[in-house]
Amino acid sequence: MHFAIRYLTEYAYDAPVTDNLNALRVRPATTSGQRCEEFTVLIDPDARIGRHCDYFGTEVLEFGVVRPHATLSIDVRARVVTADRPLAPRAPWSAVETQAYAEAAGEYVLPALDEPPRETLDELVAAVRAPTPLATVEGLCDLIPDRFQYRTDVTYVGSTVEEFLDAGAGVCQDYVHLGLIMLRRNGIAARYVSGYLWAAPEDGSDDSVEV
Q1: How far apart are CA 77 and CA 4, in angstroms?
Q2: Of 15, 42, 141, 198, which one has the greatest count of Cβ atoms within 10 A?
Q3: What is the pLDDT of residue 98?
Q4: What is the model's pTM?
Q5: What is the CA radius of gyration of the chain?
């Protein structure tokens, strides 16, 4: 598939500002499943852009505007081509129980920093456990939206998983944080990712779990 992406962010300040420093992680990755064919960034006011890769291999664009300005516009455009991917393997549980898997997964199987007491999630963790790791992931994708309401007026960026559980409702980041914990508790490596995800219009989200 071919995708044309535009990411536009505009800021308006109450008074002129200076020393406006920014870091952008907006370039679509080129991987075995997709290729970024075009990519441009327009900054207004004009600024020189520096580039480097972070710990995760993501390209970081850094720029600063040092002259007084009352508005800032960041206009990113990209064209991406994706290829069909093979179906995920239905490997047995033994495949994720080896030392080799643990070493490759690294930090992505460690407990999350905001993980609530184990007994808080025992019932949910057991509920998604299935005959294979892939079936467990698929079960998790069904269970969370079935058990929790998507509401934007309940949690905020600093909400914990325990607060999400108590409220029974939240937004995409709450779903992801809970999903991470449940997958890792089942020994499946998972991490929080944010970016462009094509979905049906009513299901669009920018926060996801990668396993």
Answers
A1: 7
A2: 141
A3: 93
A4: 0.78
A5: 20
d(CA 175, CA 141): 10
* Domains and their CATH numbers in the chain: 2-82 (2.60.40.2250), 93-210 (3.10.620.30)
> Tokens 């992801």 — which residue?
176
Can you say whether residue 44 is alpha, beta or left, with left for phi > 0 and alpha for psi between -120 and 50 degrees?
Answer: beta
Q: Which residues are 76's β-sheet partners?
A: 7, 41
* DSSP assignments along 42-67, one per residue: EEES---EEEEE-TTS-EEEEEEE-S
> Is the distance from CB of 180 to CB of 209 less than 8 angstroms?
yes
Question: What local confidence, expressed as pLDDT, does residue 112 receive?
Answer: 82
In this predicted structure, what is the pLDDT of residue 88? 76
Residue with tokens 């449940």: 182
Q: Positive or negative, the Cα torsion across 96, 128, 130, 118?
A: positive
Q: What angle do CA 55, 58, 62 make, to 5 degrees?
A: 95
- How far is residue 101's CA from residue 188's CA, in Å, rounded to a whole number? 9
The Cα 39–Cα 193 span in angstroms is: 20
